[in-house]
Prior knowledge:
This protein is α+β, with helices and mostly antiparallel strands.
Amino acid sequence: MEVLYFAWVRERIGLPKETVDTQALTVMELVDELRAREERYALAFSDLSALRVAVDQDLADFDAPLKGAREVAFFPPMTGG
């Protein structure tokens, strides 16, 4: 599965995207797997209220299922002007 990181999430992790081999059934399980990798992931995912997620380019919640998903993206909330 492709995992994409945007804005400060990308800065904290140090990658714009990566291919992840996961057994996660939900976005939250994927987050838990990523947090366990290294401190930079734990820092990036320390405050989930400051993050939004999209599964296959559709906005989703952290309890969204990942079955059949090809892409998950993490980004901060958008602000408009």
